[in-house]
Amino acid sequence: MVANREPYIHEHTADGGIVVRHPASGLVTALEPVMRACSGVWIGHGSGSADRETADAQGRVAVPPGEGSYRLRRIWLTPEQEKGYYYGFANEGMWPLCHIADARPTFRSEDWQHYQVERRPDPRGGPRQRLGLTPRGRTLDGPAEDSVEGALEREFLMLPREQREAAAEVLEAVAARLADHGSRPRR
Fold first, then answer.
1. 105-156, pLDDT tens digit by residue?
2. Using CA atoms, how far apart are residues 147 and 143, in angstroms rounded to an integer?
3. Is the pLDDT of residue 164 over 80?
4. How distant, in Å, are the alpha carbons of 45, 78, 129 from that of 147?
5. Measured between alpha carbons, how far is 126 from 120 in angstroms, rounded to an integer?
6. How far apart are CA 50 and CA 63, in angstroms?
7. What is the dihedral of CA 68, 30, 60, 92, to 10 degrees?
8. Which of 71, 41, 39, 69 is nearest to 54 (CA)?
9. Strands (E), the chain
10. Whose CA is closest to 121, among 76, 162, 68, 79?
11. What are phi and psi of 31, to 5 degrees?
12. pTM of the predicted model, to two decimals?
C-alpha cells in the first residue's frame, strides 16, 4: 500500500531513547488491521525524528514492533519537499477537492512541481527518489519486494498510469536484452 502517512512513527525522547507512536489517522485506523492480517508492504513518508535510525538501509522496518506482521517501507522527503508536496499540493489542494470539504482547494504551480517529483521516491535515497514500482512485483533483476498492489491516497492519483508505463518499459528492456543475447531457442 502507498500512503503519505506511516502507521508507526519513531521519535526521539528527551532522555535520548526512542518511542514508537501510532498516529491518529482515519487511513491508519482503517487499513493497519488489514495489513496485520494480510501482510505486505506499507510505503509511506518517514516523518519521525528517529525513523531513519530504526529502518534498514532501504528504509524498511518490520511492524508492528515486536510482532513484524508486515513491513513499513519509508521514503524520505526534505523539509522543502514536504512543504510543497505534502502540505501544499496534497493537503491544501487534493484533500479539500476529494473530500468535498467546506474549504476551497488551493493549487500553486510550485506545489504541483513538487507533487510530480516527490511522489516517486528512490530506494537508493537522494534528493530525487523513486519507488521503483513495477507491475506484478517484477523488476528486470527479479522479484520486487516493494511492488504495489494498490495506492489508496489522493496524493498518488497518477500511480496507475505510471505503473502501466513502467510495464511497457520493462517489456522494452526485456526485448532489448533478448535482442542483445540472441533470441534463438536453445537446442
1. 888 888 777 766 655 544 444 333 344 444 444 443 444 454 444 444 445 5
2. 9
3. no
4. 16, 24, 15
5. 12
6. 15
7. -160
8. 71
9. 9-12, 18-21, 41-45, 60-63, 70-75, 138-139, 142-143
10. 76
11. -105, -20
12. 0.62
